[in-house]
Automatic annotation (TrEMBL):
Pathway: Metabolic intermediate metabolism; (R)-mevalonate degradation; (S)-3-hydroxy-3-methylglutaryl-CoA from (R)-mevalonate: step 1/1. This is 3-hydroxy-3-methylglutaryl coenzyme A reductase. GO terms for molecular function: hydroxymethylglutaryl-CoA reductase (NADH) activity; hydroxymethylglutaryl-CoA reductase (NADPH) activity. PROSITE patterns: HMG_COA_REDUCTASE_1, HMG_COA_REDUCTASE_2, HMG_COA_REDUCTASE_4.
């Protein structure tokens, strides 16, 4: 008999009831069910409130990036990631610039944008003028939506209005620009945009469809910079290799995608560890990387007049300290305590520094020994575990695989059999 995924009332069941249904549907054995029942450091009720149709939770390793000095302050940074080498890369990059002052950061502000899409109009330029005249009303409507944000010094800041000519027809796109302070701000700006929509329809006679934030948070840019001396990184040829790798990425989208992915390895790990929205930050970063007409590097690498390697990054960073999982997930809260930031801007700047550090290590490896050397020893441990190695066997098998330059599961299994036979 065909199994049906049409399960009526699934969302109303308890997590245990849902798990039982999934167990039957997918023939899970008792051992697997126990894995789902162990929800680790987040209570099942919380998980059930955060998302829908919950049956369990899924743990991700949490590592601490050490050696990070940011604006003169030593900082420990929690990173949640399943990828080997990511945490080590940040520690290594930070160690090599620590004595030279570490990272210096800044922030353009905590402004988020929401868009309101007006259609069904024959006179877009005229409508644009009508909306401009209502700027004070718009400000009042937006600010009335969020007294708490206002009490924290946030609220409406400005509008931008553009006419876009599409295949369908002209549309008038209104941006409301809102200071969301320590909140990521999606809820705040979406509420304001929804409140404004009927007013814009009244003022113009058009129809509003979409009213939603933009993840291209280019008024919330986090910046970081650092200086690496040639002595600390292994010489001038390493410096030149890093700069050349950067130039490659900045002029070739195929390389830039991988280059920026490496940056996001670090960025997303801290975003996740603090309960923030990884997809929002990733979307913003990649969209921002195209702002000069083609997809380019989010970092810059240059040589200063003393011959030092200098790196900088500028990246949209819509993260908050309040709201959503940040305030509810016990580990996200604890991670924020470890980082010790006082406001969302500080967190954003720290994340930018992590992105720069990550990129430094990737480019240094790629321009010298290649990525596989460092990667492979950690990857070899994963392969050893996949082959069934436990305890001390993991290190032993991983070392054999690396020594043989054959990091493969079949070799790991062979070596494990040999080891156990000894
Ligand atoms: C791997 O996850 C990330 C790198 O590919 C980044 C890069 O190539 O710059 C190593």
């Amino acid at each position: 008999m065909n199994k049906s995924s049409r399960i009526s009332g699934f969302h109303k069941m308890s997590a245990a009831e849902r798990l039982n249904i999934v167990k039957t549907f997918s023939n899970l054995n008792d051992e697997t069910v126990k894995l789902f029942e162990n929800t680790g450091n987040i209570p099942i009720d919380l998980a059930d409130n955060l998302v829908e149709n919950v049956i369990g939770t899924m743990n991700i390793p949490l590592g601490i990036a050490t050696n990070m000095k940011i604006n003169g302050q030593d900082t420990l940074i929690p990173m949640a990631t399943e990828e080997s080498s990511v945490v080590a890369a940040v520690c290594n990059a930070a160690r090599q610039c620590y004595d030279n002052g570490g990272f210096t950061t800044s922030m353009s502000g905590s402004l988020m944008i929401a868009q309101i899409q007006l259609v069904n109009i024959t006179n877009p330029e005229y409508c644009k003028a009508l909306i401009w005249e209502k700027k004070e009303d718009i400000k009042e409507i937006c600010n009335a939506c969020d007294p708490i944000l206002m009490s924290h010094g946030g609220g409406f800041k400005d509008i931008e209005i553009r006419v876009i000519h599409t295949n369908a027809a002209a549309m008038v796109i209104t941006h409301i620009i809102v200071d969301t302070r320590d909140a990521m701000g999606a809820n705040a700006v979406n509420t304001m945009a929804e409140k404004l929509a009927p007013e814009i329809e009244n003022w113009t006679g058009g129809k509003v469809y979409l009213r939603i934030l933009s993840n291209l948070a280019d008024k919330r840019l986090a910046r970081a910079r650092a200086v690496w001396t040639c002595e600390s990184i292994g010489g001038e040829s390493v410096r030149d290799g890093i700069i050349s790798a950067y130039e490659f990425a900045d002029h070739d989208p195929y390389r830039a995608a991988t280059h920026n992915k490496g940056i996001m390895n670090g960025v997303s790990a801290v975003v996740l560890a603090t309960g923030n929205d990884t997809r929002a930050v990733e979307a913003g970063a990649h969209a921002y990387a195209t702002r000069r007409g083609s997809y380019r590097s989010l970092t810059h690498w240059e040589k200063d007049k003393h011959g030092n390697l200098v790196g900088s990054i500028e990246i949209p960073m819509a993260v908050g300290l309040i709201g959503g999982a940040t305030k509810l997930h016990p580990i996200a809260k604890a991670n924020l305590q470890i980082i010790g930031v006082q406001n969302a801007n500080q967190l954003a700047e720290i994340i930018a520094a992590v992105g720069l550090a990550q990129n430094f290590s990737a480019l240094k490896s790629l321009a010298t020994v290649g990525i596989q050397k460092g990667h492979m020893s950690l990857h070899a441990q994963n392969i050893a575990m996949m082959a069934g190695a436990i305890g001390e066997e993991i290190e032993k098998i991983a070392k054999i695989l690396v020594d043989k330059s054959l990091v493969r599961i079949d070799i790991a299994q062979e070596e494990l059999t040999k080891l156990r036979g000894q």
